[in-house]
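Why show two proteins at once? Because comparison is the fastest way to build intuition. When a single record is shown, students tend to memorize it. When two are placed side by side, the eye starts asking what differs. So, the first record is below.
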Amino acid sequence: MGEADSVRRRAEGYLVGLIARYGELEGRSAAASVCHQFGISAHKARHLARTAEGLKALPDFLAAVQHGRLSADQGGLVAESHKRAPMSAQDQQELLELGGWQGCDEYKKTVAAREDQRRAVDGMSRSERQRARRSLKVFDGTGGMVVLHAELDQIAGDRVKVALGAMSNKMLVDDIAFDPVRTFEQRNADALVALITQQPADAPNSEADGQCGGGVRPQKTVLVVTADYDAIESRLTAAGLIDGTPIGLDEIRRLACDADIVPMIFSADGQPLYVGQAQRAPAKAQKLALYRRDRGCVGCGIRPQACDVHHIIPWEHNGPTNIDNLVLLCPSCHRKAHKLGYPVEQDDQTGRFILHPPARHSHPPPPPRRGPIQPPRLANACVSNLLFCVQ
């Protein structure tokens, strides 16, 4: 394993040296583009190009990376630190010696500590220097996932950890009570999304927003998704995000239950011919009435603030957006309703709505058809796209 790692380091270091030379001739962006052609991810390619450019000012470190004494990641740490706060020859020599036996994570802390020492004479406190180094990167990772990488100063980082921990603990209470299948890492991811995309219900103007105290209310964010409409089959096809990323029709149905829907008609070359007005989104007063009536998810009973609004008669079959056709479903039960066909039924005795498992059929029944969605004033036109603005 040691021999294999040595070969890997030398090969990676040799590549960094080539990128540094190519960057001198063609520029960093061209070097990153070439790296991307080697099968390296775009993020990694930009990182290698940035490392190679930074190490040109540190020939001893560049040589150490090329010969495998330092990894490319360690070289990148030193190059970025030197760019922010130039190192003396003695600092470089000490970091060269430490890099030979320290792991990358430990070496990162060492480089940061040495940078703080070099910048101690600039009159700034340690927290101010940390804040000057704050950064956040959002990029597309492997498998279609989105990756967030943030570096925050100690104060901001502690605030984020406290807020994230509090939201995660609140979700843990729901997990214990209703036993959804959610790991610790998944709960943290859901907590982060909730903190970024939602606001506490007790924030200013929360009463005007029609929300109950102690929960969260939607942040003013918009997600735009599209779907083709097959007029012959009277159904949606080819759903996706605005950048062309495909998503499942079940997911788009779930999103559209609680979204503004804007009907649009496009020509064959993509030019918009008609844009309608937003419609079908449940009103704030309706959500408040649903909180009072359902008191939580009609499937599992989870608290109402964690629920979506669901159309019993699907919106795509002209299901009305009125209180008799709306129920509260948590995200998990909402997916069951759209993906697994769980129906919502009303109890004749209590009047309560209940989410049931679907009835077993030897052959699955065809989906109900109540007529296609038709934009106003253009009922006979072919709708090539529907635009959804999901708050």
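Second record. Ask yourself what differs from the first in the token line.
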Amino acid sequence: MILFQCDYTQGAHPSIIRCLAETNLEQTPGYGEDHYCQQAAQLIRQACGSEELDVHFLVGGTQANFTVICSALRPYQGVLSAQSGHINVHETGAVEACGYKVLPLPSPDGKITAAQVEQAVADHWQDTAHEHLVQPGMVYISQPTEVGTIYTKEELTALSQTCRKLGLPLYADGARLACALTAEGCNLTLADMTRLCDAFTIGGTKMGALFGEAVVLTNPAMRKDFRYLIKQKGGMLAKGRLLGIQFYQLFQQDLYWQLGRHANAMAMKIRQVCQEKGYPFLVDSPTNQQFPILPDSHLEQLAKDFGYSYTQRMDAEHSAVRFCTSWATKEEEVAELVERIRTLSSN
């Protein structure tokens, strides 16, 4: 069985494993105050093109998301998100468990627009009962989105300008950021993310690390006492250097972006064969997540040897599924899947 269900089925890039083994018996301060975390943070600042950033390493994406959100909101506020946003559909109500409501906005392609944000805020304040309603206090996006689409520089600029006009922090979940910024057609850079967002994450778990996310805070107002929140919300690792070492390796010699390009390239091979077969797609994704719509009979044949994620039923005989590649997906694994798709028959 070859799995294309998600991009965290494998462990970590060999250079990370080697470095963890080589430094295993070193003694360092705990809780991210070691020199590895400091060096990794400095490499990230350099990649972002700004020295005026706070960089923190947290154990996972869910912890990073609700910790950042908790740092920005007042108790009566909520966070605007696409209906398909990770915090809304895939974190078991973690944000709500912290006392903050997710305010979902409709989105067929996983993205939300500046106009939607402006309208949501206007609707709130125009309601005569607004003091009895959760106030929009922040905007959350994913780059790439949960369905693999990406925000363009123009879209993110418009969102950023609207958020700043309305006084709403803009936070981007970058669990697969390397896949977004190396995707064909992407005109955004890490420096653009730094300039346009108040906070964002650089994902490790899905991008070659064993675990962990880097939180980048660009807005000074969000930096105060952030480490208190990391500790309180369960995101702080006692052996923090395990996180620092991983991100130090990922940001050496373009490795982080190389891994993103590889994952995307493998996904494009799957996309191409699905197009050749005439399968439509749920969304147009240029990243490592592909969502073709297949006859159920074809999916049954594939399921014997390949793992994929079920997304949704389209009609009585067709379903949308997700094929997800990763930094570690092998060319021969993709070749085997491609050949099998080519030979699928409804007979």
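One difference worth noting in the second protein: The two ends are 23 Å apart (CA to CA).
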